[in-house]
Structure formats: C-alpha cells, structure tokens
Write a structure and sequence with these properties.
The protein is of the alpha+beta class. It is built from 16 helices and twelve strands. It has helices at 27-43, 59-68, 76-80, 88-91, 113-122, 138-157, 173-179, 226-230, 248-254, 261-267, 276-279, 305-310, 313-319, 329-347, 352-362, 370-380; strands at residues 13-14, 48-52, 97-104, 126-129, 162-165, 184-185, 191-192, 200-207, 236-238, 241-242, 270-272, 303-304. The strands form four sheets. Strands 1-5-8-3-2 form a five-stranded antiparallel beta sheet, with helices on both faces. Strands 11-4-12 form a three-stranded mixed beta sheet. A two-stranded antiparallel sheet has the order 6-7. The longest helix is centred in the middle third of the chain and has 20 residues, at 138-157. It starts with 12 loop residues before the first strand and ends in a 10-residue tail after the last helix. The model is unreliable at 2-11 (pLDDT under 50). The structure holds cobalamin and iron/sulfur cluster (2 copies). Residues 188, 230-233, 235-236, 242, 247-249, 274, 276-277 line the site of one iron/sulfur cluster (SF4). The site of one iron/sulfur cluster has 14 residues, from helix 9 and helix 11.
Length: 390
C-alpha cells in the first residue's frame, strides 16, 4: 500500500503543556467521554471505533522476524523504524491509549462488487485498479477527519496530548485495531470484521487520556484458506505471514525499478494494487458502502489499457488528481500498463485486437525511459510475431 511517512504535522499533533488535572476524573466520566468519542467519530464518517492500551504482546517479535527475513523488500521505512512500530509509548511519549477507527471505502452502487471484481480480471484489455485507489486519496480523507475528531475532543475537555496517524508513520495499525476490538486478523494479514469484511481503512489517535479499553473480538477464519489459495503470486507464504516482495500491491505500487520477470505474467491486468485475497474472502459479502462521498468512484473503472498507455505525463497527472495513483508517477504507471498489455497480448486472438495491443506497445518501444523500454520489449515478447505486426 502506498505510504506517506511524514513526521509530526502541527495540524495533527498536540502537546498538552498545560493539561488541567484529570486525575480527579472517575471511571464514569471516562466512560461518558468514550461514548461521546464514538458518537462524534460516527458523525465524521467512521464506521467503527475501539480503544486499546499499549500492550503489544508478540507483535514486536513477529515484526522483527518479518524484517529479518527481508519480507519488506525495498520498503526501507519499515526497517528504518524497526521495532519502534511495536512501541506506541516510545513513539509518542505520554500516550496511554490508542483510539482506533475504521472507515469503509466501498463505492456506492458497487452492487455485487465481488463478482464484478473477478469479472474485471478476465477483461484482459482493461486495467484493473484496486478498489481503494479508484477514489480520493484516503490519507487526506482520514487525516483531516481524525484531526477534526481530536479537536472535537479538545473542545469538550480542554487541551490534551494527542497525535493522529493513518498509514503515515511507524505504527502497527492492524494490530492496534485488532486489540481495540475492531475485528480479527485474517490469514491474509488484514483486519476483518463480521459486519464489514475487510474493505475499510484504519486510522488512530494516540492520546494521553486513560479511557476505558475495549476487548478484542473473537476470530472467525476457522479452517478457511481461500485467501491463501487465491493469491496469484503466492505472497501469503503461511497464515498471517505476507512476503511483501511477492505481493502485487508492492510490485505495482511500492517497488521502484523493474518488476521481476517471474511475476509479470501472474500480474495479469492489475495495474495498481490487488484485491484478490479480499475478493476470495467469504466475509467480504458483508463489506459496507462508504459513508463519505470522497470514496465514490472517479471513473477509473474499466479503463482501457491502450488508452491509459497513451497518456503523456500531463494527462496522467490530470487524470489521477487527488488519487493515490499519482504517487507512483508516470514512469511506473507506464511500466505497470506495459505488463498488462503484454499479458493481454499473450491471450489475444489473431486479428484487429492483437494488432491494436501490439501497435500501442510499439509506440513506446523507443520511450525515453529505459525502464519503460525494457517492459515494452518484454510485453511484445509475450506473443510470438507481435514485433512483426506493423
Ligand atoms: C507495509 C504495508 C503494506 C505492504 C505489506 C503488507 C503487510 N501485510 O505487511 C504491501 C505494500 C504489500 C501492502 C499491501 C496492501 N495493503 Co497495506 N499497509 C502496509 C502498512 C504501511 C504497514 C503494514 C505492516 O506493518 N507490515 C509489517 C508486517 C510485519 O505486519 P503483518 O504482516 O501485519 O504481520 C503481523 C501479523 O501478521 C503477525 N505475524 C507476523 N508473522 C506471524 C507469524 C505467525 C505464526 C503469527 C501467528 C502471526 C504473525 O504479527 C505481525 C505484527 O503485528 C499498513 C499501515 C500501517 N502503518 O500499519 C498498511 C495497511 C495494512 N494496508 C492496507 C491495505 C488496504 C492494503 C491492500 C489491501 C491494498 C491493495 N488493495 O492493494 C494490500 C493488501 C495486501 C495484504 N494481504 O496485506 C490497510 C489494511 C486495512 C485493513 N482492513 O486491514 C492498512 C492498515 C492501511 C490503512 N491505514 O488502512 N501494504
Ligand atoms: S493483495 Fe494480491 S498479491 Fe497481495 S497478498 Fe493479496 S492476493 Fe496476494
Ligand atoms: S479468506 Fe478465509 S482465511 Fe482468508 S481472511 Fe477470509 S476467512 Fe480468513
């Protein structure tokens, strides 16, 4: 998943230097405040809210092992912060609780989005963009709403210490949300809820308020292994263990440089992220529509690969304005589309359709970028004789 690893932002952090004494607050006052927070969060579009303490159990060990095995690939920021991710109190001194929040992102009118999701993967000449990335960049949406929620709390109780996060800093968000009772961890490693599947984003507010903590929920994967079986690249190497270097989300978004050849044909027409492990999950029939308008589709459904490959940089920037896709830049976009075109070519029937795909690729055979040229050459090689097509 794309990340914005920025340091403290004055709008989203606050140090309570003159905190009025809350020592006198009893459990009842704290319970009431927790209830108010749930209500305000709902008004801001969050679907579920939980509160957790900072005891991270075996998460630190698992994280250290994940890093030791090199599963983070080029995501240096994961290694850079090391196990600090598993120590919220060291990350933001003074923190005693984390308020974890979930925001559903399925676009309105998605209908049977699971069936539609599988169908799109068979439409080889169309680009498949993972559902979360078809709408407005969630970092912006969640961050501003988390900051608003923190300010709402402040308006009620006066200055307090807080910091908000969403995919933006060294925080083990899934683990915190699991502990806060927002769901259980699926075998694909994502958080999963009985009432909402896994199609939601997570965000947190670290606070210095001793709010009452919620209990984790029970787990409901049972013997199921559908996500593991569905993963095209075998990235879920064991239940709860993901080798990011094999994950299409990493390969199409996080990875700079060439996509390893062994994964290219497995990527199919997925040009930005991947939803397969979530499409396969039976709990996602309960996935909920987004409550905020920002997550309704921006017209990136059924995007034609040939048309998307023709975008120059200005068109790319214009068509992806406000979308997380913009973060990968035009060159990686073309790299990803070239792979999609190569895979479409491999499956194409002789005639006009094949000629159209080959012609689109050939227009970028001499692209200024060596990365794009190499992926174009690979793509043309997916069908014998494609380079002979005029
Ligand atoms: C790095 C990252 C990625 C990487 C690596 C993913 C990963 N699973 O680690 C890549 C680029 C591949 C990625 C992909 C996606 N991501 Co991402 N990603 C993150 C990020 C920034 C950090 C995740 C992390 O800490 N990984 C480190 C490893 C160690 O964590 P872990 O795999 O969860 O391992 C834990 C457990 O599995 C367990 N564990 C590990 N080993 C073992 C072994 C045993 C035996 C056991 C029992 C347990 C266990 O302990 C570990 C520590 O808690 C988070 C945001 C954040 N700051 O937390 C978003 C986040 C996890 N991503 C998110 C999303 C939406 C996605 C995608 C769906 C996007 C897409 N459609 O393409 C895919 C899904 C892929 C998948 N199956 O995970 C959401 C998930 C929301 C949810 N419902 O859970 C998050 C929370 C962002 C957000 N704020 O909403 N992502
Ligand atoms: S996002 Fe796709 S590639 Fe990554 S683990 Fe899930 S199914 Fe596998
Ligand atoms: S597909 Fe099955 S194993 Fe995977 S997360 Fe969903 S319920 Fe759990």
């Amino acid at each position: 998943m794309d990340t914005t690893h920025d340091p403290v932002d004055p709008d989203t952090a606050h140090d309570a230097s003159e905190v009025p004494s809350r020592k006198a607050w009893g459990q009842t006052r704290l319970q009431e405040l927790a209830q108010d927070i749930r209500r305000w969060a709902g008004e801001l579009g969050f679907a579920r809210v939980g509160i957790t303490d900072l005891e991270m159990g075996s998460a630190e060990e698992h994280l250290a092992e994940w890093l030791r095995r090199g599963f983070h690939g080029q995501m240096d920021y994961m290694a850079r912060h090391g196990v600090l991710r598993a120590r919220p109190a060291e990350l933001v001194p003074g923190t005693v609780r984390v308020i974890a929040l979930a925001m559903d992102y399925l676009p309105d009118g998605a209908g049977d989005w699971v069936e539609a999701g599988w169908r799109e993967l068979d439409e080889t000449e169309h680009a498949t963009i993972s559902v979360y990335a078809r709408a407005r960049d969630y970092h912006k949406v969640l961050r501003s709403r988390l900051a608003r929620l923190a300010r709402r709390i402040e308006a009620e109780i006066g200055p307090f210490g807080y910091r908000v996060f969403t995919d933006s800093a060294p925080v083990l968000e899934v683990e915190l949300a699991r502990k806060a009772g927002l769901g259980w961890r699926g075998k694909h490693t994502l958080l999963l809820s009985r009432t909402a599947g896994s199609m939601f984003f997570l965000g947190e507010i670290f606070v210095d308020l001793p709010l009452p903590a919620d209990a984790p929920t029970s787990e409901h994967c049972g013997e199921c292994q559908r996500c593991i079986a569905a993963c095209p690249t075998g990235a879920i190497v064991a239940p709860y263990e993901l080798d990011a270097r094999r994950c299409i989300s990493y390969l199409t978004i996080e990875l700079a440089g060439a996509i390893p050849v062994e994964f290219r044909s497995l990527i199919g027409n997925r040009v930005y992220g991947c939803d397969d492990c979530q499409l396969a999950c039976p709990w996602n029939k309960y996935a909920q529509s987004a409550r905020v308008d920002d997550f309704h589709s921006r017209g990136l459904d059924a995007l034609d690969l040939v048309a998307a490959f023709a975008w120059d940089e200005t068109t790319f920037l214009k068509n992806t304005e406000g979308s997380p896709i913009r973060r990968i830049g035009h060159e990686r976009w073309l790299r990803n589309i070239a792979v999609g075109l190569g895979n479409a070519l491999a499956k194409s029937a002789p005639g006009a359709a094949r000629e159209r795909l080959a012609a689109a690729l050939k227009l970028r055979e001499d692209d200024a970028s060596a990365l794009v040229r190499e992926h174009v050459a690979w793509a043309l090689g997916q069908h014998p004789g494609a380079s002979q097509i005029p």
